[in-house]
UniProtKB/TrEMBL annotation:
Domain (Metallo-beta-lactamase) ranges: 40-235
One Pfam assignment: Lactamase_B
Annotated signal peptide: 1-25
Record-given protein name: Beta-lactamase domain-containing protein
Entry superkingdom: Bacteria
Organism from which the protein derives: Fictibacillus macauensis ZFHKF-1
Length: 282
């Protein structure tokens, strides 16, 4: 009997020790957020320290090959979580082909049926592969092991005047480092976030709506108080994004700005304490 009890204690200690080891390993593993170069569109891929991943948006109509090649280059076979921030073509344009290529566990999107070919194509794949769809709504959170989590801060309401304001806003935390991905949120969404009393502070902000002057207000930037801004934009676009007004605000706050049109793919690498950036060019 004594022997059995001692063996049981020994096994319990081993289990405990392996848990501590895993927790430590996850803490020291980096978290990477890749901001893909998809022109005036959005596509981000997050590699969590526990090995899971998130795809945020799926580029525009002709970006599928570029996105798929990038993910395959990272050795991705399964995408754990997909977030389609809102149904505009520059966010879901190539998502159908990406979902077709990889195994996908779950997709979150705002409750906003949208009558376009892109939306219908996306749902054709979702239905064919029976991918579970959940409603993206503020307050939803996801844990990735011991050191990382992701939370949806928006949308908080069920109706907005502009489709961009339905954007799923994602805050990712790894250790002490925080990243705020604004999708295409405009002034109304920013106002709602400010009123929500959620913790908006972040080290890095992926600026809303490709840097257009439809948001990224001074009041909002001050509340977030990020040191670094990422802008996903194309070099030649008729809308002249990013706007000089927005760039002026970022400069006024002495923020470092990384733009996909100038640097290609931008990767933020977090070790839980500090963040370094890697780009295509250097
Ligand atoms: Zn957009």
């Amino acid at each position: 009997m004594k022997k059995i009890i001692i063996s049981a204690i020994f096994v319990a200690m081993l289990v405990c020790l392996s848990d501590i080891h895993d927790a430590k390993a996850a803490w020291f593993e980096p978290m990477k957020i890749h901001f893909l170069d998809v022109g005036r569109a959005d596509c981000m891929f997050v590699q969590m320290p526990n090995g899971e991943n998130i795809l945020v948006d799926g580029g525009d109509e002709h970006d599928a090959a570029r996105i798929i090649e990038f993910l395959q280059g990272l050795g991705v076979k399964t995408i754990d979580l997909v977030i389609a921030t809102h149904p505009h073509h520059d966010h879901i344009g190539s998502m159908d082909e990406v979902l077709e290529t990889f195994s996908v566990k779950k997709i979150y999107m705002p409750n906003l049926p949208y009558d376009t070919s892109f939306y219908h194509d996306l749902f054709k794949v979702i239905n064919k592969k029976k991918i579970p769809v959940e409603r993206a709504v503020a307050g939803t959170s996801f844990r990735f092991g011991f050191s990382a989590k992701a939370e949806l801060l928006a949308p908080g309401a069920s109706y907005y005047k502009y489709i961009n304001d339905y954007s799923a806003v994602l805050k990712i935390t790894h250790g002490n480092n925080k990243f705020l991905l604004m999708a295409d949120s405009g002034v109304a969404a920013e106002r709602e976030l400010l009123r929500s009393h959620q913790d908006l502070q972040a080290d890095v902000i992926k600026v809303g709506h490709h840097g257009a002057n439809t948001g990224t207000t001074m009041k909002f930037l001050k509340a977030v108080s990020a040191k670094t801004a990422i802008i996903s934009c194309g070099s030649q676009n008729p809308n002249a994004y990013p706007s000089n007004v927005v760039l002026g605000r970022l400069a006024q706050l002495n923020m470092t700005v990384y733009r996909t049109d100038q640097l290609g793919v931008i990767t933020a690498i977090s070790n839980g304490r500090s963040i370094r950036f890697k780009t295509n060019g250097f």
